[in-house]
Known about the structure:
Layout: H1 8-21, E1 34-40, E2 50-54, H2 67-77, E3 83-90, H3 100-107, E4 114-118, E5 124-128, H4 129-132, H5 143-149
Tetrahydrodeoxyuridine binds near residues 34, 55, 64, 66 and 99.
Amino acid sequence: MSISNLSHEQVKQLLAASHEAYQYSYVPYSRFPVGAAILTEPDAQGQRQIIKGCNIENASFGLAICAERVAITKAVSEGHRKFSAMAITAKHTAPCFCCGTCLQFIREFGAEIEIVFENPDGSVLHYKIGDMLPYAFTKDDLPEFAEEAG
Ligand code: THU
Protein backbone atom coordinates (compact mmCIF):
# COMPACT_ATOMS: atom_id res chain seq x y z
CA MET A 1 0.00 0.00 0.00
CA SER A 2 1.41 3.40 -0.82
CA ILE A 3 -1.16 6.02 0.20
CA SER A 4 0.55 8.36 2.65
CA ASN A 5 -0.44 11.46 4.61
CA LEU A 6 3.22 12.32 5.07
CA SER A 7 5.36 14.57 2.92
CA HIS A 8 8.31 13.09 1.09
CA GLU A 9 10.58 15.01 3.49
CA GLN A 10 8.81 13.60 6.58
CA VAL A 11 9.15 10.06 5.26
CA LYS A 12 12.84 10.63 4.55
CA GLN A 13 13.47 12.09 8.02
CA LEU A 14 11.55 9.35 9.78
CA LEU A 15 13.36 6.58 7.93
CA ALA A 16 16.73 8.26 8.55
CA ALA A 17 15.91 8.49 12.29
CA SER A 18 15.00 4.79 12.39
CA HIS A 19 18.35 3.93 10.79
CA GLU A 20 20.12 6.08 13.39
CA ALA A 21 18.17 4.34 16.16
CA TYR A 22 19.47 0.83 15.48
CA GLN A 23 23.05 2.01 15.93
CA TYR A 24 22.24 1.79 19.65
CA SER A 25 20.48 -1.58 19.61
CA TYR A 26 21.60 -3.90 22.40
CA VAL A 27 21.43 -7.25 20.61
CA PRO A 28 24.20 -9.59 21.86
CA TYR A 29 21.92 -12.65 21.40
CA SER A 30 20.16 -12.14 18.06
CA ARG A 31 22.63 -9.72 16.47
CA PHE A 32 19.56 -8.30 14.73
CA PRO A 33 19.47 -4.52 15.23
CA VAL A 34 16.10 -2.83 14.68
CA GLY A 35 15.31 0.88 14.83
CA ALA A 36 11.99 2.69 15.13
CA ALA A 37 11.16 6.38 14.86
CA ILE A 38 7.81 7.83 15.80
CA LEU A 39 6.45 11.16 14.57
CA THR A 40 4.23 13.01 17.03
CA GLU A 41 1.24 15.01 15.90
CA PRO A 42 1.78 18.80 15.93
CA ASP A 43 1.58 20.35 19.44
CA ALA A 44 -0.12 23.68 20.30
CA GLN A 45 2.79 25.52 18.66
CA GLY A 46 2.56 23.35 15.57
CA GLN A 47 5.80 21.55 16.45
CA ARG A 48 6.28 17.85 15.87
CA GLN A 49 8.91 15.61 17.39
CA ILE A 50 10.61 12.45 16.23
CA ILE A 51 11.28 9.98 19.03
CA LYS A 52 13.57 7.01 18.42
CA GLY A 53 13.82 3.52 19.86
CA CYS A 54 16.06 0.48 19.42
CA ASN A 55 15.62 -3.13 20.47
CA ILE A 56 17.09 -4.13 23.82
CA GLU A 57 17.76 -7.77 24.66
CA ASN A 58 18.46 -9.56 27.92
CA ALA A 59 20.29 -12.66 29.15
CA SER A 60 16.82 -13.80 30.18
CA PHE A 61 15.84 -14.02 26.49
CA GLY A 62 12.10 -13.53 26.92
CA LEU A 63 12.67 -10.04 28.30
CA ALA A 64 13.84 -8.64 24.95
CA ILE A 65 11.89 -5.54 23.98
CA CYS A 66 11.36 -4.49 20.38
CA ALA A 67 12.40 -1.13 18.97
CA GLU A 68 8.78 -0.12 18.35
CA ARG A 69 7.79 -0.53 21.99
CA VAL A 70 10.89 1.30 23.18
CA ALA A 71 10.00 4.26 20.93
CA ILE A 72 6.37 4.34 22.11
CA THR A 73 7.37 3.92 25.76
CA LYS A 74 9.85 6.77 25.50
CA ALA A 75 7.31 9.01 23.78
CA VAL A 76 4.44 8.33 26.19
CA SER A 77 6.68 8.79 29.22
CA GLU A 78 7.63 12.23 27.83
CA GLY A 79 3.96 13.23 27.61
CA HIS A 80 3.15 12.33 23.98
CA ARG A 81 0.03 10.34 23.14
CA LYS A 82 -0.84 11.44 19.63
CA PHE A 83 1.21 9.98 16.84
CA SER A 84 1.07 10.43 13.07
CA ALA A 85 3.52 7.80 11.94
CA MET A 86 6.25 5.35 12.79
CA ALA A 87 9.12 4.08 10.62
CA ILE A 88 10.76 0.74 11.31
CA THR A 89 13.99 -0.51 9.78
CA ALA A 90 16.45 -3.29 10.55
CA LYS A 91 20.14 -3.34 9.76
CA HIS A 92 20.04 -6.70 7.99
CA THR A 93 16.48 -7.15 6.69
CA ALA A 94 14.14 -5.03 4.60
CA PRO A 95 11.29 -4.65 5.01
CA CYS A 96 11.25 -5.49 8.73
CA PHE A 97 7.60 -5.95 9.72
CA CYS A 98 6.40 -5.50 13.30
CA CYS A 99 5.66 -8.46 15.54
CA GLY A 100 2.10 -8.98 16.76
CA THR A 101 2.84 -7.60 20.20
CA CYS A 102 4.09 -4.34 18.71
CA LEU A 103 1.07 -4.07 16.39
CA GLN A 104 -1.17 -4.19 19.46
CA PHE A 105 1.06 -1.77 21.38
CA ILE A 106 1.00 0.79 18.56
CA ARG A 107 -2.71 0.27 17.87
CA GLU A 108 -3.48 1.37 21.44
CA PHE A 109 -2.79 4.95 20.32
CA GLY A 110 -5.09 4.96 17.29
CA ALA A 111 -6.03 3.10 14.12
CA GLU A 112 -4.74 5.83 11.80
CA ILE A 113 -1.06 5.81 12.70
CA GLU A 114 0.90 5.33 9.50
CA ILE A 115 3.55 2.62 9.56
CA VAL A 116 6.45 3.07 7.17
CA PHE A 117 8.76 0.29 5.99
CA GLU A 118 11.57 0.32 3.48
CA ASN A 119 12.17 -2.17 0.68
CA PRO A 120 15.72 -3.26 -0.18
CA ASP A 121 15.68 -0.96 -3.23
CA GLY A 122 14.82 2.04 -1.02
CA SER A 123 11.18 2.21 -2.10
CA VAL A 124 8.75 2.77 0.74
CA LEU A 125 5.73 0.82 2.03
CA HIS A 126 2.97 2.62 3.95
CA TYR A 127 0.22 0.97 6.00
CA LYS A 128 -2.30 2.19 8.54
CA ILE A 129 -1.88 0.33 11.83
CA GLY A 130 -5.63 -0.36 11.76
CA ASP A 131 -5.19 -2.22 8.46
CA MET A 132 -2.27 -4.24 9.84
CA LEU A 133 -4.28 -5.30 12.89
CA PRO A 134 -7.93 -5.06 11.83
CA TYR A 135 -9.47 -6.97 14.74
CA ALA A 136 -7.63 -5.39 17.66
CA PHE A 137 -8.77 -5.39 21.24
CA THR A 138 -9.02 -1.69 22.12
CA LYS A 139 -10.35 0.72 24.72
CA ASP A 140 -13.69 0.57 22.88
CA ASP A 141 -13.99 -2.96 24.22
CA LEU A 142 -13.65 -1.54 27.73
CA PRO A 143 -16.25 1.25 27.61
CA GLU A 144 -16.16 1.90 31.34
CA PHE A 145 -12.46 2.78 31.07
CA ALA A 146 -12.41 4.55 27.69
CA GLU A 147 -12.69 8.11 29.03
CA GLU A 148 -10.01 7.61 31.65
CA ALA A 149 -7.55 6.14 29.12
CA GLY A 150 -7.88 9.34 27.02
N1 THU B 1 12.56 -7.01 16.80
C1 THU B 1 12.22 -5.68 16.87
O1 THU B 1 12.83 -4.90 17.62
N2 THU B 1 11.20 -5.25 16.09
C2 THU B 1 10.59 -5.99 15.13
O2 THU B 1 9.74 -5.47 14.43
C3 THU B 1 10.95 -7.41 14.96
C4 THU B 1 11.85 -7.97 15.99
C5 THU B 1 13.71 -7.46 17.59
C6 THU B 1 13.42 -8.34 18.77
C7 THU B 1 14.76 -9.06 18.92
O3 THU B 1 15.64 -8.22 19.67
C8 THU B 1 15.30 -9.16 17.51
O4 THU B 1 14.56 -8.21 16.75
C9 THU B 1 15.17 -10.52 16.88
O5 THU B 1 13.89 -11.01 17.01
